[in-house]
């Protein structure tokens, strides 16, 4: 692979030599949890412990809030010339890029994801997010309202204060970047809680942020478990806003925490069950089948916007299913550090058991076309073969609940109206992919889909410049794009009555 070694044994040796920090990062320095507790961080591809990590709790959240509030009030970040923040965030992007191989290894060991993807997507993608929001922060203009000559009225953006960022394990550094980069760029102080399954790159990010020049207390990282570390972030009166990515179930908890405490703003990016719709006039069915396989098997299907429901028109259903089965061959699980592997390990034994529970349900309610088994048991890791069910009833459990694994439900349809109704019959509304060569139909479908993003003749087009997020129970906010600033800024109206000559 370009610029990176393809020697698996060399990567394995480098992995063995890594000494990841397991300490929390509060007020500019690494610290143990206040009560000294720690937990084992496990490589799900081998089942081996890779680090001991601080298990933070309410006392640590309180320490971090004090540091964040102090730094926010001091103003060296919150009130500085935004061009200073730009320089620091771009320096941080450069440092992340410079540490790509180390961060990619950490990410792969921590989550079981393919090192290849971490090297080419997760880490460069995270650096690009810091660069984008760093570049943007001194170019956003405020507003002057046309109220006549007797007053000057302005609308200005102000950072909200202290932002809590609570993120999941599927794209650990990227999800952290999606929250923290715009929040920091807007001048906030931030407390990041990575998922307990994948804290290592967030902890390294804290060190790089300090090296880049982010002042003490402005960026804090608290690893720990959901109820113990995430709960106190949701409930703390000193936190003004929470940016959350994770399950719909826990997203709802954050709304409750806000209601029980200080009514902090809560921005949620939650689960999904995205539809992939294939019409018979699709120009290149083989390309569509490859995209459908990528849409569900990329990152072991542990993707919020994974297109886990496939609707194919009955006229091309057989041909398309054959192409899909062929395309799924590219996703054979293997050692994540081997750059030729097709799919990595699942995040944990717990998640593997959950996904296999759905596979068992699927066997009872549909036809298993491929996969459906755990594989590579000899590694001690958690691997599942790419799994496709055919003849699925759109109301079946596997077609309605978020599985968050490499499991696809294939359904056929006859009319456009039928498929729109079926695609929208979901509690989720994150993404959709529509395949057709009829422009009118593409526009009609894009408008009819109740989702945050529609990709036409493509799958899951995520771009820094366009917002990402969902409707319905997929969430209430948007990450990425300049719109992300809106979540982490308040608007202030200032009305100055003018007197005297000319007024
Ligand atoms: P999760 O909801 O279990 O955990 C997410 C975060 O919340 C973790 O940091 C976790 O420690 C914390 N948490 C868990 N319980 C908590 C509690 N009681 N109080 C406070 N915090 C708590 O989700 P997950 O299993 O880590 O991730 C998978 C989910 O994330 C899927 O549902 C997926 O769709 C979703 N996701 C959504 C997006 C998006 O942009 N919409 C992106 C990636 C993942």
Plain-language structure description:
- The protein has 503 residues and is α/β, with parallel strands linked by helices.
- It has 2 domains: 14-270 and 475-490, Aldehyde Dehydrogenase, Chain A, domain 1; 275-464, Aldehyde Dehydrogenase, Chain A, domain 2.
- It has 15 helices and 23 strands.
- It has helices at 8-17, 58-74, 82-98, 100-111, 115-136, 172-185, 200-212, 226-235, 248-260, 285-297, 317-328, 349-365, 397-400, 416-424, 439-448, and strands at 24-26, 29-31, 38-43, 48-54, 143-145, 151-159, 162-166, 189-193, 219-221, 241-245, 265-269, 275-278, 309-313, 367-370, 374-375, 383-384, 387-390, 407-413, 428-429, 431-435, 453-456, 471-472, 489-497.
- Helix 13 (397-400) links the parallel strand 17 (387-390) and strand 18 (407-413).
- Helix 2 (58-74) runs parallel beside helix 8, helix 3 (82-98) runs antiparallel to helix 5 and helix 10 packs across helix 11 (317-328).
- The protein starts with 7 loop residues before the first helix and ends in a 6-residue tail after the last strand.
- The mean pLDDT is 97.
Named at the architecture level, the CATH assignment of the largest domain is 3-Layer(aba) Sandwich
Mean pLDDT: 97
Supply the helix-strand structural class.
alpha/beta
CATH H-level superfamily title of the largest domain: Aldehyde Dehydrogenase, Chain A, domain 1
Largest sheet: 7 strands, mixed
Helix content: 25-40%
Mind telling me the C-alpha Rg? 24 Å
Secondary structure tally, helices: 15
Strand order of the largest sheet: 14-17-18-13-12-20-21
CATH topology of the largest domain: Aldehyde Dehydrogenase, Chain A, domain 1
Q: What is the molecular shape? A: globular
Our estimate of the beta-strand percent is 15-25%
Number of domains: 2
């Amino acid at each position: 692979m370009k610029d990176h070694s393809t020697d698996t044994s060399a990567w394995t040796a480098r992995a063995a030599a890594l000494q990841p920090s397991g300490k929390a990062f509060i007020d500019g320095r690494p610290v143990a949890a206040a009560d000294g507790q720690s937990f084992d961080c496990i490589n799900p591809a081998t089942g081996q412990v890779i680090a001991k990590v601080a298990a933070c709790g309410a006392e640590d959240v309180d320490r971090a809030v004090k540091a964040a509030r102090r730094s926010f009030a001091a103003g060296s970040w919150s009130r500085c010339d935004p061009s200073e923040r730009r320089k620091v965030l771009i320096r941080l992007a450069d440092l992340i890029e410079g540490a790509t191989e180390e961060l990619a290894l950490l990410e792969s060991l921590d989550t079981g994801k393919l090192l290849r993807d971490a090297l080419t997507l997760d880490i460069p993608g995270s650096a690009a997010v810091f660069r984008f929001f760093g570049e943007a922060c001194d170019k956003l203009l405020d507003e002057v309202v046309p109220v006549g000559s007797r007053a000057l009225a302005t609308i200005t953006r102000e950072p909200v204060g202290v932002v809590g960022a609570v993120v999941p394990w599927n794209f650990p550094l990227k999800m952290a970047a999606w929250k923290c980069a715009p929040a920091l760029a807007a001048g906030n102080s931030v407390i990041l809680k990575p998922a307990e399954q994948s804290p290592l790159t967030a902890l390294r990010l804290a060190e790089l942020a300090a090296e880049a020049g982010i002042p003490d207390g402005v960026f804090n990282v608290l690893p720990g478990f959901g109820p113990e570390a995430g709960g106190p972030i949701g409930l703390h009166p000193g936190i003004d806003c929470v940016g959350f990515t994770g399950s719909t179930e826990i997203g709802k908890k954050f709304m409750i925490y806000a209601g029980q405490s200080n009514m902090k703003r809560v921005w949620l990016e939650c689960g999904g069950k995205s539809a992939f719709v294939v019409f018979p006039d699709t120009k290149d069915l083989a390309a569509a089948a490859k995209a459908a396989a990528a849409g569900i098997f990329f990152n072991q299907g542990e993707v919020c916007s994974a297109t886990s429901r496939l609707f194919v028109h009955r006229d091309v259903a057989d041909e398309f299913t054959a192409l899909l089965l062929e395309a799924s061959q590219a996703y054979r699980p293997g050692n994540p550090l081997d750059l030729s592997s097709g799919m990595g390990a699942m995040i944990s034994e717990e998640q593997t058991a959950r996904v296999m529970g759905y596979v068992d349900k699927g066997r009872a309610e549909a036809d298993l076309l491929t996969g459906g088994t755990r594989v590579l048991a000899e590694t001690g890791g958690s691997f599942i073969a790419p799994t496709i069910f055919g003849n699925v009833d759109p109301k079946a459990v596997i077609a309605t609940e978020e599985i968050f694994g490499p499991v696809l439900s294939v359904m056929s349809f006859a009319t456009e109206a039928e498929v729109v109704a079926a695609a929208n019959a979901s509690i989720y509304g994150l993404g959709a992919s529509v395949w057709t060569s009829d422009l009118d139909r593409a526009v009609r479908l894009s408008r009819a889909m109740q989702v945050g993003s529609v990709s036409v003749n493509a799958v899951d087009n995520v771009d820094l410049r366009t917002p990402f997020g969902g409707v319905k129970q997929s969430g209430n906010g948007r990450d990425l794009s300049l719109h992300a600033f809106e979540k982490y800024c308040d608007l202030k109206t200032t009305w100055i009555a003018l007197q005297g000559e000319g007024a």
